[in-house]
Structures are given as structure tokens and as C-alpha cells.
């Protein structure tokens, strides 16, 4: 599962903390605001299901709901169908938007729930009786692990990072070169996200102190843009304070 979404207006990528930081405090509004173009856009949750004893499906998406919208929609369902509807496997197909948002939300707040088993139960029942006997009503263990979108939270170890000024300059120059080759298409890739992703891949997520990284990136970014800000866009700015709080309050996400 991933909440990384593309803005429908400028095509920039929106990440989970950016989406949460710009949600509207309204229970009927599905939009967030893109940090790059500052326009409303509907974020998506995207799922890819894999496993030995369940049918294979192409990735699919549902709207990513803010907690106020999710609560309102869930209360409507429970009022009409009763509390026990959450224990029935048919809930997955009858209310897919609510279901997948609940699965994601429980993972983000690090609370165990029976909800993933509802999906596994409905899909294993579609297989042969032999596979069903092997997997059981609770579903396949491997598939259950795949459904979990986040890793166990660990306290990150402080890792000294190399100076970020040169990587900022190099990535900006490379992006500008590619932009000229593509006949001036808009810049959609965040240099901040590129460097963070590469650091996590190279050193390991548990070996990086995100707070230290953000401080160093912020210092390097403002140092570079003092002299030349033409190569940098809004998506390259350091993470906002609100997005930082969103990241701190929820269970850390894992890299694929």
C-alpha cells in the first residue's frame, strides 16, 4: 500500500505527510492542497496485492480520505448496517473506499485490527478448495505480511550525513538538462525526496536520523538558493513544520 499520489494539476508527487498537512478540516471535502502548485487535488491510496493462495490483481486505487471524512462515512455505514457489518467479509467489496482507508489508518497509528483478514478471507475463498484448506479462514501468512504497508517502528540511529550542497546542485543541473531534452516540461521530481530516498537506500532507514537530515537539507537548500533559485521549485523546499509533525506522530513508513 502507498499513499504517494500525483497532483492532477501540476503532476508533482505528493507524499503522505504533505497530504496530511494540507487536508481541509471538513467532513465532506476529499481534497488536499498540492505543496507545489497550491491547488486542490484528490490524493489516492494505491494497493498491490500479492500472495500464493490468493488471485493476482493489477494495482488499484481508492480516494485517500482525511480522518474527518472517513469517520463520517464509517458512521453512516454503521448506522445503516450495524456494528457487525465490520466483521463480515462482504464489507471489503461493498465499501472498498472505507475498508482500505481503515486498513491504512490502523497501520499508520500502529493499532492491530482484524480488517486485513477480511480481504484475505474473501480472496482465498475464490481459490480452489485445496488452497483454501491450506490457507485457512485467516488467510495466508505471507500475504498478510505483504498487506502491511509499514515496518515496525524503530528508534533511528544518528548517522552523520555528507554535505548536501553539492548533491543539491548536481541534481538541479541534471533535472534542468533533462527538462531541456523534454522540451521544457514542468519539474515534477522533488530533490528533497530524491536525496532522502537515496540516503535511506544507501545507509538503511534505521541508520538515518530524519531530524538531522532535515536540518542539514534545510541549511544546504537556503544556502544554495541564496545565489541561484532559478533551478529550484516549490517541491524542492524543506519539509514544512506541519508535515514534520504529521511524520512524527504516525508510525514510520517503509521503503518498497
Automatic annotation (TrEMBL):
PANTHER family: DENN DOMAIN-CONTAINING PROTEIN 4, DENN DOMAIN-CONTAINING PROTEIN CRAG. Residues 124-136 have a biased composition (Basic and acidic residues). One of its GO terms (biological process) is regulation of Rab protein signal transduction. One of its GO terms (cellular component) is cytoplasmic vesicle. One of its GO terms (molecular function) is guanyl-nucleotide exchange factor activity. Residues 124-149 are annotated as: Disordered. This is Uncharacterized protein. It comes from Asbolus verrucosus. Transmembrane segments: none annotated.
Amino acid at each position: 500500500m502507498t499513499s504517494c499520489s500525483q497532483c492532477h494539476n501540476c503532476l508533482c508527487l505528493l507524499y503522505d505527510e504533505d497530504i496530511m498537512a494540507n487536508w481541509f478540516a471538513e467532513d465532506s471535502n476529499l481534497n488536499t492542497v498540492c505543496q507545489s502548485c497550491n491547488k486542490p487535488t484528490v490524493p489516492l491510496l494505491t494497493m498491490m496485492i500479492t500472495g500464493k493462495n490468493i488471485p493476482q490483481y493489477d494495482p488499484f486505487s481508492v480516494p485517500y480520505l482525511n480522518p474527518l471524512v472517513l469517520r463520517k462515512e464509517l458512521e453512516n455505514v454503521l448506522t445503516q448496517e450495524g456494528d457487525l457489518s465490520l466483521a463480515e467479509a462482504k464489507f471489503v467489496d461493498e465499501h472498498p473506499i472505507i475498508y482500505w482507508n481503515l486498513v491504512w489508518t490502523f497501520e499508520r497509528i500502529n493499532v492491530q485490527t482484524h480488517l486485513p483478514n477480511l480481504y484475505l478471507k474473501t480472496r482465498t475463498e475464490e481459490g480452489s478448495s485445496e488452497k483454501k484448506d491450506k490457507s485457512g479462514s485467516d488467510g495466508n501468512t505471507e500475504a498478510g505480511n505483504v498487506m502491511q504497508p509499514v515496518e515496525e517502528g524503530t528508534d533511528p540511529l544518528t548517522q552523520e550525513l555528507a554535505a548536501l550542497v553539492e548533491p543539491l546542485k548536481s541534481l538541479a543541473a541534471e533535472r534542468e538538462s533533462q527538462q531541456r531534452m523534454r522540451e521544457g516540461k514542468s519539474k515534477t521530481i522533488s530533490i528533497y525526496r530524491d536525496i532522502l530516498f537515496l540516503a535511506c537506500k544507501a545507509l538503511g532507514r534505521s541508520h538515518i536520523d530524519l531530524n538531522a537530515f532535515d536540518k542539514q537539507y534545510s541549511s544546504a537548500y537556503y544556502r544554495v538558493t541564496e545565489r541561484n533559485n532559478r533551478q529550484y521549485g516549490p517541491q524542492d523546499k524543506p519539509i514544512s513544520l506541519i508535515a514534520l509533525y504529521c511524520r512524527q506522530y504516525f508510525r514510520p513508513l517503509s521503503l518498497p
